[in-house]
Specification:
single chain; alpha/beta; two-stranded antiparallel sheet; 12 strands; binds iron/sulfur cluster
Length: about 450
Amino acid sequence: MSESVSHPPSPSATPVTGRGFHAMVKPIGPICNLDCKYCYYLEKEKLYPRNDRFRMPPEVLERYIREYIAAQPGPEVNFAWQGGEPTLLGVGFFEEVVALEKKYGDGRKITNALQTNGTRLDDAWGEFLAREGFLVGISIDGPPDLHNTWRVDKRGRDSSPEVLRGLEVLHKHGVETNTLTVLNRTNAAEPERVYDYLTRELGSKYLQFIPLVERKANTAARALELDLAPPPDPSRTAAKDEAEARVTPWSVLPSQFGEFLVRVFDRWVRRDVGQVFVQLFDVQLGHWMGSGPGLCVFAPTCGNAVAMEHNGDVYSCDHYVYPDFKLGNLMEAPLADLINQPRQVAFGDAKRDTLPRQCRECRYLFACHGECPKHRFIRSKHGEPGLNYLCEGYYRFFEHADPYFTAMARLIRQGRTASDIMPMVIEEDRRQAAAAPPNRNAPCPCGSGRKFKACCGKAATA
Ligand code: SF4
Ligand code: SF4
């Protein structure tokens, strides 16, 4: 495998886990101290009784840890803790998590990933997370002005000062971190500024970019008193129509998404390969190398990445925490049985079986597989429903990155490193610049001070 793909993904990206399954656990449900304007999960509070404490009871926690470990086929078991904001539970809750993992670990290697907004981290957290080897994903959307556009606290105040303080705590204690950046309509318009801030100012070496796509409330949402539309049912795409493509004003635009990926890729491929690991690029390079999908969204089928709420309710996926997609409750049936039931298998297979012709005939099907069913709500060029809203952006990126990934894959097969691409790209840039016709509006090289087009175009002589 390449020198990339070397860092475990944060819980917000769902790795494909062989024959096992992956669970994203929400021990505090949707409760959070922030009030990010684009958050799709905060409103899930309405799915639970008003007097719910939203704290995972000890018996649910213990049963979950025992069953999750037992159900994993390999020698390594990865736990993913998310929210809401899981750090609101306090360090004590996670000390109990670690104690239970040791109790039921059965000699396996156990790892933990925690996704946090970072604002509640202090030295006690830093010491604990470092000691227990947690991988911490910190949500940060770029420079403060871009981050604070959407990520604010309950009083509408900027969250970036507290996030940066939390990140400093993690660095101080040597906690392994990655950054998760939600690409929305604001920050996606500034690719270089976002990328440079994350990599140069914050020193992030492991980056995730997650496209924000939410649709305005429809009939199904209103029935649940929710403000955002549930994603399309993967098995019923034929019933969908374009009316449901009304995305929220903060959702990234498909063209913007493609442009963002292309421009960040262009920066990365010239200066950061082998030093900075952008999850989407790593995973795609893997596809160009012929390896299997690294993330559920790019896999042919899905269904083995479930979400579990604080009370043990298990849902088909983190993006499908809705009554129609509830598989059952951990306290009523074994976790493995909930996940292996036919309706969940059908949920995952529908990802492949409902692909529109445009995807089936796409030259980048091997890399994309129609991406996530959550985003499949527009019509294809053949008029079929169920095309991915982000298709235009993904296609643009794949087309742009194809020659680079092809070259990198060849280098790796030759026993070289992917980073050997960088001098090749720079040399090609230089060659093209030298061969390019001069800019007729640029100053004339003779030094006259006049525009090239109004002068001689000859180089100055000494
Ligand atoms: S619906 Fe499928 S592809 Fe999309 S996030 Fe969930 S598991 Fe992954
Ligand atoms: S790039 Fe577009 S057409 Fe191709 S597989 Fe992805 S969503 Fe389908």
